User: Which sequence fits this backbone?
């Protein structure tokens, strides 16, 4: 419940991937950072644990008294008293177990949600260069599969293991009270039982990390196929993709079984060693009774506590194996959270307020991180006046889209400056900086939401009337009224219910509604037929009169509407002027124009 949730946890703001003293406890240390804000729940769980453990340990004393004072002494009143006390202990144990598990389960679910929230928030800060390097399925695997692997670790490691540790310590104390002589044998046996956990634990952790990587590979492959299903089916490659997926699944199966076999072997070895030790101690205790150094009740209590110690050691070994398995997921999550964003706000960012929208590129050099030796822009300088409509044209790969990438500050230039209204992009907070732009991309993003919500993405507080007005301006209303539920119709993932031209018009309506000082049109009419293009160009022309507009276009009809045309080739400006002037003075533009600016 929101009421139970404290303000943003300190742990959510701690340094991601912070090194811990021992890698063996990295998972516990990482989760503990996120548990600390919920300390009242943890205190309640510990109180429940103390009550349940004390009640359970007291049962051994009850068994001893029932045998020595009741059964052997043939005292029925003593038996009745012991029974009443043991029933009370059972009730107390039940209450303690409920209090412990209900609180620790709440903390477990809250922490897993916090982790997913933290990962998602961090992903939103990463620049496009990160997503160019990493596949979508790999990223989603860390958000879903890796966090799912940690689900339950808190309830087991911080509750079950702690419970068994407390029980083990308490039982050892009771063993010392009952028979110090036999306790010495328990102390000798315990390190022998624990040794396999240390020896096999590191191998389990390595296998767990490899299993998580294999799972991420499976999810990435499935994500690629689902995202490109039309292409897969168009080329009839279903069997090929299924074979690739099965190969990846088989590799995951082999890796997972190797991890599970080792984990199960560890648990089995520890359990066998523990109960062999108990059997040996029972044998030694029986000899003590025969020698008259122990009573039958004391031996029964001692066996009871010895079994508790053995069971606790076995349970701790099982949790230890789970922690090792979770270690791989923890490493992957910490690696992601430790990934720095390429674009960050300065310590004291300059205030950005909507202005006239004057754009300036000053001697900009830029190369993409994936192609560091290849300059996408070289000594690039451009000024765009407030309210001016400038078209950027040039051959494919000339650098036109790079201009938009730098304006939106997906990247920073290697040299030079990018300015809007005199403010350098590096001096502003990225979110505030981007709030100056409205973008219509060549392949617009349509969310799996209603038509109205997709348009309202441009301005979240817009009223229904404002949304519909933007839709009319972009000629969206013409097809919106034919949809099953009108503006409330959900458009499906990536807008599958719409044609390419309709998706483009929705994106234009979104930009109209945003009312940003600068409008960026990246092939905004490329997917439209001639009739739709004429309608959208009319809407863009009305919109551009109120905004500074940069247009990337290949079509001659779009270019001719611009106040100025800038020709880019090889990352440099090689021409600037009107359509007629460039036809006469620019060989690059003339060549493009001769092909109707389609190439």
Assistant:
């Amino acid at each position: 419940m929101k009421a139970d949730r404290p303000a943003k946890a300190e742990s959510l703001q701690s340094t991601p991937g912070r090194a811990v003293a021992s890698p063996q406890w990295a998972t516990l240390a990482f989760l503990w950072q996120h548990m600390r804000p919920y300390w009242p729940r943890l205190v309640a769980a510990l109180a429940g644990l103390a009550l349940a453990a004390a009640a359970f340990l007291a049962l051994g004393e009850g068994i001893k008294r029932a045998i020595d004072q009741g059964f052997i002494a043939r005292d029925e009143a003593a038996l009745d008293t012991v029974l009443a006390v043991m029933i009370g202990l059972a009730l107390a144990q039940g209450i303690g177990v409920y209090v412990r598990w209900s609180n620790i389960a709440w903390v477990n679910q809250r922490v897993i949600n916090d982790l997913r929230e933290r990962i998602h928030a961090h992903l939103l800060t990463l620049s496009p260069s990160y997503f160019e390097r990493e596949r979508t399925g790999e990223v989603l695997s860390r958000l879903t599969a890796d966090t799912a692997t940690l689900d339950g670790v808190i309830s087991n490691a911080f509750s079950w293991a702690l419970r068994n540790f407390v029980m083990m310590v308490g039982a050892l104390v009771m063993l010392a009270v009952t028979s110090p002589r036999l306790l010495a044998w328990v102390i000798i046996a315990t390190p022998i039982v624990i040794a396999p956990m240390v020896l096999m634990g590191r191998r389990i952790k390595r296998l767990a990390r490899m299993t998580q990587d294999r799972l991420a590979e499976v999810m990435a492959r499935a994500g690629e196929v689902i995202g490109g299903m039309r292409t897969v089916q168009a080329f009839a490659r279903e069997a090929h993709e299924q074979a690739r997926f099965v190969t990846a699944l088989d590799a995951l199966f082999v890796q997972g079984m190797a991890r599970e076999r080792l984990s199960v072997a560890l648990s089995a070895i520890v359990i066998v060693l523990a109960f062999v030790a108990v059997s040996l101690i029972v044998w030694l205790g029986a000899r003590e009774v025969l020698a008259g150094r122990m009573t039958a009740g004391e031996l029964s209590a001692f066996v009871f506590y010895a079994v508790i110690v053995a069971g606790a050691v076995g349970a701790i070994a099982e949790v230890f194996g789970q922690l090792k398995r979770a270690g791989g997921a923890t490493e992957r999550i910490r690696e992601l959270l430790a990934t720095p964003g390429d674009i960050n706000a300065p310590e004291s960012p300059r205030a950005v307020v909507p202005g006239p929208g004057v754009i300036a590129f000053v001697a900009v050099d830029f190369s993409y991180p994936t192609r560091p030796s290849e300059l996408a822009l070289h000594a690039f300088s451009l000024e765009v006046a407030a309210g001016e409509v400038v078209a950027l044209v040039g051959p494919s790969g000339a650098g036109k889209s790079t201009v938009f990438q730098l304006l939106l500050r997906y990247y920073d230039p290697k040299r030079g400056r990018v300015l809007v209204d005199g403010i350098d992009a590096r001096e502003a907070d990225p979110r505030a900086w981007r709030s100056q732009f409205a973008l219509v991309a060549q392949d617009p993003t349509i969310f799996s939401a209603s038509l109205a919500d997709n348009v309202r993405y441009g301005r979240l507080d817009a009223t229904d009337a404002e949304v519909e007005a933007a839709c009319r301006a972009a000629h969206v209303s013409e097809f919106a009224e034919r949809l099953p539920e009108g503006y409330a119709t959900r458009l499906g993932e990536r807008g599958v219910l719409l044609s390419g031209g309709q998706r483009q018009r929705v994106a234009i309506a979104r930009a109209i509604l945003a009312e940003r000082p600068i409008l960026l049109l990246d092939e905004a009419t490329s997917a439209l037929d001639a009739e739709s293009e004429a309608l959208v160009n009319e809407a863009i022309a009305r919109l551009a009169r109120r905004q500074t507009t940069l247009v990337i276009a290949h079509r001659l009809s779009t270019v001719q509407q611009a106040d100025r045309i800038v020709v880019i080739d090889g990352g440099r400006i090689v021409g600037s002027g009107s359509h007629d002037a460039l036809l006469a003075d620019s060989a690059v533009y003339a060549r493009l124009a001769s092909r109707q600016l389609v190439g």
Notes: Residues 5-24 have pLDDT under 50 and may be disordered.
